[in-house]
Design brief:
single chain, alpha/beta, 29% helix
Length: 324
Amino acid sequence: MIMKRGAKARGTKIVHSRLTTKNKATPKKKSTTGRRSRRWIFMVAMVFFVAGTLYILLCTPMVEVRDVHITHTTRVDAMALRERIIASLEGRAFGCTAKNNFFIVRPQVVADMVREDVRVRDVRVTKVFPHGLVVDVEEYTLFPVWCVRDGEQCHVMEGGCIGRQIDPTEDIVRSNPSMIVYDTGHDTVVEGTCPVTADDVQKIAYVGQELTYAVDTRIMQPYRVDFRGSREVTYTTDEGWAIMTDLGRDSDATLATARLFMSTVMQEQKRSDLVYIDVRFPEKIFYKMRNMPAEQQVEDVSAASQNTSPSDKVSDVQKSTKDR
């Protein structure tokens, strides 16, 4: 009978002799005392490591914010803003942890403080490990202030739209280097609404600046607008008399009319007697002088009349009123 290697013959039994079987050695039990001691050493070391790391990160000046960089500022005083931020981070937050700790400083809190300046449109604060803080400021490109109720409620304006409300008593409202507008046609305005266009804002500012040269006197703020029935803008000079303009009329044409009035009518009149001039119309100038009849307070500035001399133009106006 041929049998395969490793196969048992049917009916046979393999018997192992105790004499031929090798006795296996019984393994020794490991000592639990050494294992426990090593575990405790590891745990104590981890506690010291974590505690030491936390102490270094929270209670030492190794990670304190000391370098504050202000970027992209033009109107905002970067040095003053930097000192203000550093001053706000002085003192202790809790225990041994300082307020200027890198992990304690909250960028949102710093950003909210920077936004308190009404000239700031937006701000982004970035922490740079381990000592840096970068404050990227975005300022308003044009900074008009739009007020209602004779300055009781004022808002920052950008692009013809009403922005966030500001305190009317702030110095930036009373001495705004850009423009202050008093809206006499509305009792209140809502943030996000756009009473005028961006071009209107630019035109109001442009005419206000150029009128200084056209009438040879300083134009005072605020500018007053009234859109209830027309698009009327009134400018006041430092001599006390007003200039009434129409926002719908071409700016250069308005300035040309004002210059023509000053070079003709005002050559024969005292500036101190002037109450207002109205240059809203292309062919006539209405004006008011103290102690002057109302029917004489109109000047023809048509193309035909512009060829006459200043004295002839004034006499023509007075003559036409006498003939009525």
